[in-house]
Amino acid sequence: MKKVYEGKTKTVYDLEDGHYLLQFKDDVTGEGDVIDPGANTVIGKVEGKGNASLKMSKYFFELIQTAGIPTHYVSADLENSTMVVKKAECFGAGLEFVCRLQATGSFVRRYGKYVQEGQPLDYLVEITLKDDLRGDPLVNDETLVQLKLMTAEEIEEVKAATKRITGIIKEKCDELGLELVDIKLEFGRIDGKIALIDEISGDNMRVKEDSRILLQKKLCEKICG
Fold first, then answer.
1. Do 154 and 195 sit in the same domain of this protein?
2. Contacts of the segment 152-156: beta carbons below 8 A, 24+ positions apart
3. Can you tell me the distance from the alpha carbon of 188 to that of 89, in angstroms, rounded to the nearest whole number?
4. Looking at residue 97, what is its pLDDT?
5. pLDDT given for residue 9 in this prediction
6. CATH number assigned to the domain comprising residue 195
7. Does a structural domain hold residue 100?
8. Which of 30, 145, 147, 188 could be cross-linked to 88 through a Cys-Cys bond (beta carbons 3.0 to 4.6 Å apart)?
9. Same domain, 125 and 60
């Protein structure tokens, strides 16, 4: 087993059998001393946070696969906080597909002249490059095509999948009296077909309860029990 990547919240190992092993970590990201899953800087650790992220990922990947949406998920070992996944080809160095149901965070900072904090949004999908050095810049469809990162057909397929997956997660949140604000998803190609990859947890979504954002472990308790 060879380590191939050290991320902010996960370490990736090559199992050399066509699969990767993801080791979930307790590291949290944020700004200053405020935890923010959308930030690019690790500010500390929260014991059990990695296991909570894995537990949520297992729950949602299995739910999404049941809905017939391809993913890279194979299995999870909750005791050791690891997940086995199929190898996927990323789009360039990676893209993030953000589906917004409310205006908040960077969206308000960009468009505050035209929106108010908390304003409803109708499954608005934004695409960003995974590039910490440049602050994960937004990228439009035409640029993706001209940079040869995705085809126009792939972009439409992934946008549709992003909205559908967001709808599945929103439905679960609604059942529990929770409010999904936005979610950040990643996709890749597996055997030439588009599939959902990475994780689905409190590390890549914002969910409110009584107008307050739930942190990763508390969100896992609410959703997974």
1. yes
2. 154/91, 154/194, 155/127
3. 5
4. 98
5. 86
6. 3.30.470.20
7. yes
8. 188
9. no
Amino acid making up residue 174:
D
For position 35, what pLDDT does the model report? 67
Could you tell me the CATH number of the domain that includes residue 7? 3.30.200.20
Helix segments in the chain, DSSP class H:
49-66, 106-111, 141-146, 152-175, 216-224
User: Taking the chain (225 residues) in consecutive chunks of 10 residues, what is each chunk's mean pLDDT?
Assistant: 86 92 84 65 79 96 97 97 96 97 95 96 97 93 98 98 98 97 97 96 94 93 93
Q: Note the pLDDT of residue 24.
A: 94
> What DSSP designation does 133 have?
G
Which structure tokens are listed for 20?
């990767």
Q: What is the pLDDT of residue 95?
A: 98
Assigned domain for 223 exists: no
Nearest to 88 by CA among 208, 217, 197: 197
Identify which of 225, 202, 199 has the alpha carbon closest to the alpha carbon of residue 85. Answer: 199
The answer as to whether 161 is a domain residue is yes
Closest CA relative to residue 128, chosen from 190, 178, 184, 188: 184
Domain that holds residue 151: 91-217
Burial of 206 (0-12, 13-18, 19+ CB in 10 A): buried
Would you say how long the chain is, in residues?
225
Closest CA to 8 of 107, 96, 132: 132
Is 222 inside a domain boundary?
no
